[in-house]
Amino acid sequence: MPKNQNAAAINRPRLKQKFSRLLGQWGVFFRGFLEHPRMVGSIIPSSRFTVEKMLAPVDWEQCQLFVEYGPGVGTFCQPVLDRLPRDGTLIVIDTNPLFIDYLRRTFADSRFVPVLGSAEEVEAIVKANGFEHADYVLSGLPFSTLPDGLGPKIAANTHSILRPGGGFLVYQFSARARDFMARHFRHIDSGFEWLNILPCKLFWGWKRAGD
Questions:
Q1: Roughly how many angstroms between the first and final C-alpha of the chain, as a whole number?
Q2: Which of 147, 151, 157, 201 would be a feasible disulfide site paired with 143, CB 3.0-4.6 Å?
Q3: 32 Cβ neighbours under 8 A, 6+ residues apart
Q4: CATH 3.40.50.150 fits 5-206, yes or no
Q5: What is d(CA 100, CA 61) in angstroms, rounded to the nearest whole number?
Q6: How far apart are CA 145 and CA 177, in angstroms?
Q7: Treating both helix axes as pointing N-terminal to C-terminal, what angle do 3-35 and 97-106 enclose, rounded to 10 degrees?
């Protein structure tokens, strides 16, 4: 067999495996959206541009615990793990067992802790894993469609569990989340990412000393 044909034959299974993994991820995400549409922010995972912009303000040298609400199929998980210190921890919290099971099978990193639960329980979850506070909390939860009363509870409990100097990072299609954040975070930076389906609003709420 000619050399170029042999190389193509070797690469073909790899391409099939890569396509299969991609289809599997999207399939899990789509199924999760169909089962719990009010708890999943989008039918399509966030773009790499959203990921980069959302994580850009994080001071990774001062990050021992990073928490994510609603990780879905883990779009942010690997980028966070790539930046996190070796002794850091990433806790992801989701109410959908489909997503948690997928994440457990996908990420073998010892710093990765998937939790089946609600974001409003963040204080108990953080303390159950041996921490007194979180350094950063990331959320893609759709605050505008969450059950009544849940959004305010999540915002309040997130502020409570963050250390002074920590941040609440939120990406949304609507500005509703900012209303909940503003009740607790006096300083909120805002941004926007066009290169996402759909374009989304970005918010960074900072907990200052004395807040």
A1: 70
A2: 151
A3: 40, 72, 73, 96, 98, 99
A4: yes
A5: 28
A6: 10
A7: 150
Q: Which of 50, 55, 140 is nearest to 94 (CA)?
A: 140
Where along the chain do its domains lie?
Answer: 5-206
For residue 149, the one-letter residue type is: G
Would you give the distance in Å from CA 108 to the centre of its chain? 17
Nearest to 41 by CA among 114, 116, 119, 102: 119
What digits encode the pLDDT tens for the residues 25-83? 555 555 545 455 444 444 466 789 999 999 999 999 999 999 999 998 899 999 999 99
Which residues pair with residue 168 across a beta bridge?
137, 205
pTM of the predicted model as reported, rounded to 2 decimal places: 0.81
The sign of the torsion formed by the CA atoms of 121, 110, 98, 137 equals positive
Q: Whats the size of the chain, residue-wise? A: 211
Distance CA 94, CA 176 (A): 20
